[in-house]
Write a structure and sequence with these properties.
alpha/beta; TIM Barrel; 8 strands
Length: about 290
């Protein structure tokens, strides 16, 4: 039996009912779809509208994902604006059975280096034996952590990996240069999968793969099998087409899910739903690339 793929992790959208309540029945179906495709789920991340979820909802989603996919397949996001909340979320996730966690840096307020270190040390202590990934997204958090500073932080706080989003997503090589070989680096830039691998990254955490995992898995498999540029080019073109239409937009991803017949649900946040013309293009994209 082949080993599970580890190159593409899917950060899932969160489905809500029309009146804004969390729709766990729909979430179960989405989690099963991802468990059967990429096989790797990130729960309650940016694509999942985590700022609009309360603590009990984040725990419920994590518990459901663990039930559907198992601990080895789930990365639970526990980031919060402050260490007190992040520690509570971490304890919830670990008690539910999560063994891999990701924590966005504190956000909204600025943070000095010692405050950032304290935040991750407190989350690390609460995480116990679980793997802990930092999640760097300066455009959303307001906090920039450069490669050299991050390497010090990772060592001091016992981090296992990092997800680089926004500007850092294109700087895998720069971060990789300051980190030990065993440290795991993922990029949130869907389109740069092959570049990420070339630069020593483990792969991508791809929001677009929530609706259309096939092109990303095909490209990753070909790249890892040693395919040449001529073989990779048409596969990359498929990925580029998906990213151009769906990313980064939870609203567009949800529309693509609906076209596939999956229960995307409504949203609580402003997620960028497509205009009619773009919706038509997404429908054609799904017809061409799904399944």
């Amino acid at each position: 039996m082949p080993a599970p793929q580890t190159t593409v992790i899917t950060p899932l959208t969160t489905p809500f009912t029309p009146d804004g309540e969390l729709d766990l029945a729909a979430a179960r179906e989405l989690f099963r779809f991802t468990a059967d495709t990429t096989g790797l789920l990130m729960i309650a991340g940016t694509t999942g509208e985590f700022p609009a979820l309360d603590r009990s909802e984040r725990r419920a989603l994590t518990e459901l994902a663990l039930e559907v996919a198992g601990p080895g397949a789930v990365m639970a996001h526990v980031g919060a604006p402050d260490a007190h909340a992040a520690v509570a979320l971490t304890r919830d996730a670990v008690s539910a059975g999560a063994t891999r966690l990701a924590a966005l840096t504190p956000y909204y307020m600025p943070a000095e280096p010692d405050e950032l270190r304290d935040y991750f040390l407190r989350v690390r202590q609460a995480a116990g034996d679980a793997e802990l990934f930092a999640y760097l997204f300066p455009e959303r958090s307001g906090i920039t952590v450069g490669p050299e500073e991050f390497a010090r932080l990772a060592k001091e706080c016992g981090l296992s990996g990092v997800k680089l989003s926004g500007t850092p997503s294109t700087e895998v090589a720069a971060y990789r240069a300051f980190l030990p070989a065993e440290f795991t680096v993922y990029s949130g830039n869907d389109a740069l999968l092959t570049t990420v691998l070339d630069e020593g990254g483990a792969g991508v955490i791809s929001g677009c793969s929530g609706a259309l995992p096939e092109p990303f898995l095909e490209l990753a498999a070909a790249k890892l099998a040693g395919a040449g540029a001529d073989e990779l080019a048409p596969l990359q073109a498929r990925v580029d087409r998906v990213v151009a239409l769906l990313g980064p937009s939870a609203g567009r991803i949800k529309h693509a899910l609906r076209v596939r017949g999956l229960p995307a649900g409504s949203s609580r946040m402003t997620v960028g739903y497509p205009d009619p013309r773009t919706a038509d293009e997404i429908e054609k994209l799904v017809a061409d690339l799904a399944g």
